[in-house]
Amino acid sequence: MNTVYAINGPVIKVKNTKDFSMREMVYVGEKKLIGEVIGVSSDFTIIQVYENTDGLKVGEQVFTTGSPMSATLGPGIISNIYDGIQRPLGDMKKLSGAFVSEGSSIPALDLQRKYDVKITVKTGDKVTAGQVYATCPETPLITHKCMIPPSIKEAEVTYTAPDGQYTVNDEVLKIKIDGEEQELSLTLCQKWAIREPRPSKRRLPISRPLITGQRIVDSILPIAKGGAAAIPGGFGTGKTMTQHQLAKWCDADIIVYIGCGERGNEMTQVLEEFSELIDPKSGRPLTDRTVLIANTSNMPVAAREASIYTGITLAEYYRDMGYHIAIMADSTSRWAEALREISGRLEEMPAEEGFPAYLPSRLSEFYERAGYVDTLGGDEGSVTIIGAVSPQGSDFSEPVTQNTKRFVRCFWALDKSLAYARHYPAINWMTSYSEYADELSDYYAENVSPDFTSVRQEISTLLVEENNLMEIVKLIGADVLPDDQKLIIETARLIRVGFLQQNAFHKDDTYVPLEKQLLMMKTILFLYHKAYEAIGKGVLISSIIKTGIFDKLIKMKYDIPNDKLEMFEGYDREIENIFAELNRETA
Amino acid sequence: MAIQYAGLSSVNGPLVCLEGVKDVGFDEIATIYLDDGTQRTGRVVQMEGDKVVLQVFEGTGGLSLENTKTVFGGKPLEIPLAEEMLGRVFNGVGKPIDGLGPVFPEKYADINGKPLNPVARSYPRNYIHTGISSIDCLMTLIRGQKLPIFSGSGLSHNKLAVQIVRQAKIADSEGKDFAVVFAAMGVQNDVADYFRRSFEESGAIERVVMFLNMSNDPIIERILTPKCALTVAEYLAFEKNMHILVIMTDIASYAEALREFSSSKGEIPGRKGYPGYLYSDLASLYERAGVIEGSTGSVTQIPILTMPNDDITHPIPDLTAYITEGQIVFDRNLDQTGIYPGLSVLLSLSRLMKDGIGEGFTRPDHPDVSNQLFSAYAKVQDARSLASVIGEDELSEIDKAYMKFGDAFEKHFLSQGFEENRSMDETLDLAWDLLCMLPTGELDRMSEKLISENYDPARAEKFMR
Q: What is the pTM of this model?
């Protein structure tokens, strides 16, 4: 019998045993706390416990399960809210009240609920890994597809149940694997070890953007489907707000939102808002396409470490069905801190800032699970990861931010001074970058407008020029600049306030379609070109500003509704008239 | 009779080690009887085989390897709970120190509490009125929120805390079911005295439960003080349906105590020597704020912390601000120019205010007014830094208007008397008066309608003199 020998917070040791294997899931003590083996040596087996160990005694039994920490994959995942090890929090509340208690072993999926199942294979069919054998509507938006587990290379169907109502554990199919005697029965669900990436046929090149309706993202710093992005920012810079906006509006089929070591009230907000918000494309609440994983900062730290893997495993499962998934991980720093905390309890040699030396490899393992793939079943699906980073002391040189930078190709740096000036989203256009911009330019040219890339580039250039001029302005004031440089400053202000700033609480401004984004940029540039020309003819910048046209354009994001884009023509005409007038006066 | 373990195998700082112990649970409480008849309390913090490490609350002075007998109690630290605790004063581990005798408990509860299931929370809406303009208007305190005050040594955070306790009230009730739980961790004796006296003088003491751990009290008690206070707060809020404001001061002393304790346990230190689990530990305190479904009460927290060396990037304020829903930050410069409360408007933030103000809660124009004040005051800073380079005379007209606005804002809006309790209307009207100092074109966060209803340069004349 294996018993607890030592206890140190969430880490326990079992002495002199060879029964455990690495990464195996175990039950600890009389309360059957869930744990995972994280170290095996001839003297000790080390186990991290995913629950509070208060009251656990030396000498209590530890039970093996023989299988690794796994997620249960099947219908009923979407719309659910889980803790870090896939226990449904709603069911837990029914069982143990408002506070989370230990040892509650609750099935991840609703075992009673019946699904309207359609079997898509026949007896005698040859099936391969990833092939769909049954479908059922999971929510009004998502059709769940049950797939042959990836471990089965080739098999023959020996039995199919008729179409009808089934629960997740009902047998719907029997297969005989080539070269094996035993028949295998399949239900609507399967298990998958959370730390192992689910296989796909091959990775496809990045070619499609994840459209978010946020101007600075879509137009200036795009993210691709299957890409990975990081949002680093000190406290109060709006990381969570930015992630909420992306989760609400991006055009992924399914959102996996991982609240990893964050605030409880925030998770409640997500829950409330997402059930009230209606997805404009489908007319259904956003919860119909969302899975929440909530492991708040006061919940056990080991489960926080696992929550990231649980989330990405669920995402990969739906990717294999041919869906596009976006994962919001808020925040990966809390996850890294969980690693550090457990590493400290194991008395491992710390590297930078006390983080374990394997931090970078763990981070890369996570971010590399993003991708746009050809699935085993022959569909196309993608997982996009958007990870928030909370750098200590807002210092981007700390290990989590620096290492994350190495594994993501899109970096949205949130800036404190922008946030203080209530410029939201506070993404700093100078320090942020997106390597996807080039790969996506073909998509923008084909689907939005051929000149999208050049317009985008001109806007970026103006912002860079402003940044250079501001160095001078800080020293000697703006008054001494020549008029053409003043125009750059004025136009850049228009871009910053009128275009980059976006109001998440305004009904039109919270989501802006790509066409409107392009027209806004074009109108701004049209004004700039006209003004530049006029200044060359001797018109004073002060008289241009006096016409109020800059202020009018700043407000166009509110004044032009998303469905009345023809109003932009009126703006162009007005600009033309203003400059015709000004030029006449000067001449 | 429970088993008595004679003697100890080692003593190290606040920790003692026993061997040959059987059947003891993690986090269990033990009583240590000394030969001289006194007794101390300890808690199991580590176990390996038959070896148990205990942390001793009252300190290990006088303990030797032979003069003790230890008895394990079989359960974690619990404190007695009753409604009669209101108006009473306790030490850091919940023992009465006001000479009024023990509390007759209605129940006992484990001070560690349990994490709140996010599904069981209700999202906090609706505010607590503090009567302080800068807080009410710009960083509104919402019921169920945790909003810390970041201060520095020598700044007036204690005064502000007293003023908040005295003036705080719930808008839509008489304030009858509103109470304060006050936890002092490692404060000086005269500071604790100041709080106690102020509460008594204002009559607020009847709705206050005080937990006092002085700076010369044992650090182990200090680690338990906020847990005791929050356990009482949760009991009053979720079982007695009261609105509870928990004030905890000083979180920096708490974190120091945690560091001392961690290093005596021989743990691997994280940043600046604080234990790697500082974030999780602080979260286990702060996350005990909230509103839950099925109860009309709420727990709101105002932790106060003095930033070491006024450094907001120090691990304690840094980690705190990542957990809490905003922060109220003191500014030493403002404080020194005699402005009370000298709060740094731009560094301060209340994350939950957007859903708890405006129509139906405070006043419909509140969100726009506070947004506009923030953005105007940010421009004041730009104007000031420009003025310091090129001189005030060289500034543009707009920048000059901002300079004037900034001074008036600090003098009339931020600054207010210790006895001054401003209503929400007074505060917002004052804000409008100040905004009228600026040309209308600068009010870019306002709708035309709001401007035409409220904008009148005459309102600002009183500041122009």
A: 0.89
